[in-house]
Write a structure and sequence with these properties.
By secondary structure, the protein is an alpha+beta fold. The chain is 27% helix and 37% strand. It contains four helices and seven strands, in the order βααββββββαα.
Length: 164
């Protein structure tokens, strides 16, 4: 495998492309319940955070109903990387197609490459979110997103960061 390839994961489901498309757009049901903003409207931004470990602003920039969704990472911050710009301007690409009577969902995080300090952690996380949580949301109607924070995370930090 070449060292600069993007992270990619593919799942195959016995559901319609429409079901897969709607599930992908519902980030709160497979990625995190702690998301603010619209995840299913073109040119809208939403904000994701996981404790103080990961803060992320995401924008839906391309949408072909039941075929493709492309989200751009507008801003991002990890607490555990030296380079705070990792992920910025990368894209989350979901491609939906029919394969032998099943629906294939190919997820590619374009720009998430092996050289990134976060690659291994991000690879593990995406594998879980796509191959388990999103897969279960599409096939069984219930994903395993990060639950809403109950530990009183510092909302002030989040608000300031969102306004950047």
């Amino acid at each position: 495998m070449m060292n600069h390839e993007n992270y990619s994961a593919t799942i195959l489901v016995e559901k319609s492309p429409e079901t897969a498309f709607k599930a992908i757009q519902d980030f709160r049901s497979w990625w995190s319940e702690d998301i603010e903003g619209k995840t299913d409207k073109l040119n809208e931004e939403f904000f994701y955070h996981y404790k103080d470990v990961h803060l992320c602003k995401v924008k839906l920039i391309e949408m072909e109903p039941n075929e493709k969704l492309v989200y751009q990472i507008m801003d991002n911050q990890f607490s555990f990387t030296k380079d705070k710009s990792e992920w910025i301007n990368t894209k989350l690409v979901f491609e939906i197609s029919l394969q032998d009577g099943k629906t294939q969902v190919k997820f590619t995080h374009k720009g998430l490459v092996h050289e990134y300090e976060c690659y291994e952690i991000c690879e593990d996380a995406w594998s879980n979110y796509i191959k388990k949580s999103l897969y279960n949301l599409i096939t069984a109607g219930e994903g395993q997103p990060n639950p809403k924070e109950k530990d009183g995370f510092n909302a002030e930090i989040v608000e300031k960061w969102k306004l950047k």
